[in-house]
Amino acid sequence: MIHLVKVLSRSPEETSELGKIMGGILTGGDIVALSGTLGAGKSVIARGILRALGVEGDIPSPSFVLVAQYEGGVPVNHIDLYRLTSPDEALGLGLEDLLGGDSVSVMEWADKIESLLPEARYDILLEQGRGPDDRFITIKSADPGLRKRLMIMGKLLEGFGR
Amino acid sequence: MRLLAIESSGKVGEFAVVAEGGVLSESTVDVAGRLLEKGIAMVEEVLGRAGTSLGELDGVAVSMGPGSFTGLRVGLAIAKGICFRRELALIGVPTLDAIAQARSAHTGFIVPVMDARRGEIYLSIYRSDGSVVSRLADYLALKPDAAIEMILGECGGSPTVLVGDAITPYGDVLASGLGPGAGCVPGFEFAPEEAWRVRARVVGQIGLALLGEGKVLDPATAEPMYIRPSEAERKAGRG
Ligand SMILES: Nc1ncnc2c1ncn2[C@@H]1O[C@H](COP(=O)(O)OP(=O)(O)OP(=O)(O)O)[C@@H](O)[C@H]1O
Ligand SMILES: [Mg+2]
Predict the structure, then answer these.
(1) How many domains is chain A partitioned into structurally?
(2) Cα distance from B50 to chain A (closest Cα, Å)?
(3) Relative to the CA of A10, which ligand 1 atom is closest?
(4) Does residue B203 share a domain with residue B184?
(5) Where are the alpha helices (DSSP H) in chain A?
(6) CATH number, domain containing residue A18
(7) How far apart are CA A81 and CA A79, in angstroms?
(8) Which domain, by its residues, includes B55?
(9) For residue A63, what pLDDT is reported?
(10) One domain, residues B203 and B225
(11) pLDDT tens per residue across span B193-212
(12) For residue A136, what is the enclosing H or E element?
């Protein structure tokens, strides 16, 4: 059983492409929690996901406003917690309501509030690889239903294990 | 050349493997929101029945819309997932082209009409000489009145056939707008219901032709063709 998707991305384009494939497996209410250091590529993959969800036009970084909302084919929240000082502050932002609705939420710096996040979510970790443009991208979930979808994504990428 | 073809713009998902000689295999399923789960098994099945594998394909042709947002999004994600890091061409086939192409034997005008919900019809206008089909108009989303006006304006002098699932909700309106005396000379007809659905094999056939012309998509920028209502209509709809 494949429980996670792990890919070595060699360029921003590949990372964006993976985001688009990821966007294809999401449904309303899903939460995607992105983690990784500054410049890891969280925004690159987030934009790919948003595009695949039908968001058009500019997608600026929401780090100053913390939340940007879009009407794609589904409503989408793009959240960036970089400037968040404490998990309590997140509660003050009404984050629970945002995550509880029908919108897909894509969250950068999600590890800052990990304890507040529901278990039914996708976790995407981006890590610097050896080369300057290399990024290890790991996608996993603790939720059995979501894991099933990740398994399908893994199968697609691996050519059905053949 | 050999292509996997994916059609998921509506309620039914269909996968096919096609080559120049024709259809090698085809499989259809009522997806009911489970296209992703069922899709993988169907891809494996059609490849197996065609006696081929991903490594032997030249590309993936996918129906690009308009149509169901979820269906198109998942269909394209499956196509992109399969093409990711493989030497496979990604080919986008406009869904209305595929509906029109399936009626290519009709000499005259072919008007695919898809139910866009929210009171609108997706349509374009094509002309066929009995084998070669060419598109004469943009891909549009129009209210029935505007659709009738457009069809009356474009289709004169040759028989006109309307085909697609918009005939269910708007057949009566379209018939009274285009019928005898309304000016659609020399008349129009509705294609039989079996012909309304988009077929993966036709998506594949058009895909082969596009691939032959080098018309492939960049997976980094390819997005489904959603054809949104205008901003004004969207606001009115919400008001
Ligand atoms: N394989 C790769 N995947 C993603 N980005 C890459 C890759 N290789 C190089 N880059 C570059 O790394 C940068 C990633 O920036 P991005 O804004 O996505 O990071 P971030 O994780 O959102 O950072 P921040 O925490 O500052 O918001 C971009 O400049 C991008 O071009
Ligand atoms: Mg960022």
Answers:
(1) 1
(2) 16
(3) 1
(4) no
(5) 12-25, 42-52, 87-92, 95-100, 144-158
(6) 3.40.50.300
(7) 6
(8) 2-95+198-235
(9) 80
(10) yes
(11) 999 999 999 999 999 999 99
(12) strand A135-140
The verdict on B47 and B108 lying in the same domain is: no
CATH of the domain at B189: 3.30.420.40
Residues of B in contact with A156 (CB under 8 A): 40, 78, 81-82, 84
Q: How far apart are CA B108 and CA B126, in angstroms?
A: 8
3-class secondary structure for chain B?
Answer: CEEEEEECCCCEEEEEEEECCEEEEEEEEECCCCHHHHHHHHHHHHHHHCCCCHHHCCEEEEECCCCCHHHHHHHHHHHHHHHCCCCCEEEEECHHHHHHHCCCCCEEEEEEEEECCCCCEEECCEEEECCCEEECCCCEEECHHHHHHHHHHHCCCCCEEEECCCHHHHHHHHHHHHCCCCCCCCCEEECCHHHCCCCHHHHHHHHHHHHHCCCCECCCCCCCCCCCCCHHHHHHHHC
Residue-wise pLDDT for A87-112, tens only, equals 888 888 788 888 988 999 999 999 99
Q: Which of B4, B9, B15, B36 is most worth mutating to test chain A (most A CB atoms within 10 A of its CB)? A: B36
**Low pLDDT (below 70) residues in chain A:** 1-2, 160-162
Whether A11 is in the pocket of ligand 1, judged by its Cβ within 6 Å, is: yes
Q: Residue B79's Cα: distance from chain center in Å?
A: 16
B151 and B175 inside one domain: yes
Q: Which domain holds residue A31?
A: 4-158
Place of tokens 């084919």: A73
On chain A, the residues whose CB falls within 8 A of the CB of B4 are none
Split into its structural domains, chain B has a count of 2
Same domain? B114 vs B158: yes
What is the predicted ipTM?
0.89
B179 token code pair: 């019928």
Local mean pLDDT, 10-residue blocks, chain B (239 residues): 96 95 94 84 95 95 94 95 93 98 94 94 96 95 95 86 96 87 71 94 98 94 79 43
Question: CA-CA distances (angstroms) from residue B238 to A69, B53, B118, B233?
Answer: 17, 48, 11, 9
| Closest ligand 1 atom to Cα of A61 | 27
Q: Is A52 exposed, middle or buried (0-12, 13-18, 19+ CB in 10 A)?
A: buried
User: In this structure, which residue's CA is closest to atom 17 in ligand 1?
Assistant: A43
